[in-house]
Design brief:
single chain, about 160 residues, about 70% helix
């Protein structure tokens, strides 16, 4: 490095789609196996409340608002987002995407495990877990939007750099 040259900053890239898909598949298998394991050990499968379902939508809304604010701040000429905050938001987006993929996959797997059961309790769990899976997908979309909001024009991987 020559004098006056800025040191290279570590580069954080966006999360690869294969990793997100892998987490979703793990969640799907885990969610599907919950009922099977409960049946095998003689336990009642866990219920799902509407509060749990609503939390997936609430988390998606929070992530979407942070993404919108980040998008505006990164592109602002008046008060641009500093590098460290952009990195923090990118890390939040990456972690949220992984958690959202697990949540969406887990609830979807739990819903699938109740598909061929014709009991009212099973129908209620199928409905709630399906709606929660949609909330998990919205969480995933919002976290991917937040991840994209950390990018600037002309730079595909470093967040908030001007």
């Amino acid at each position: 490095m020559t004098e006056g040259e800025e040191p290279a900053r570590p580069r954080l890239t966006v999360l690869p789609p294969g990793v997100i898909a892998g987490f979703a598949v793990v969640g799907l298998v885990l969610g599907w196996s919950v009922r099977r394991i409960c049946d095998a050990v003689g336990r009642i499968p866990p219920g799902i409340s509407w509060l749990q379902v609503s939390m997936t939508f609430f988390a998606a809304a929070i992530l979407a608002m942070v993404g919108r604010d980040t998008w505006r701040a990164v592109r602002s000429r008046v008060a641009p987002l500093d590098f460290q905050r952009a990195v923090n938001r990118l890390v939040l987006a990456r972690a949220s995407a992984l958690v959202a993929a697990l949540v969406a996959g887990g609830y979807a797997g739990y819903a699938v495990s109740w598909l061929w059961n014709d009991v009212d309790y099973a129908r209620a769990l199928l409905l709630k877990s399906s709606v929660a899976a949609v909330g998990g997908l919205l969480m995933l979309a919002a976290s991917l939007f937040l991840q994209a909001a950390c990018r600037t024009e002309g730079d595909d991987s470093t967040p908030g750099k001007r």
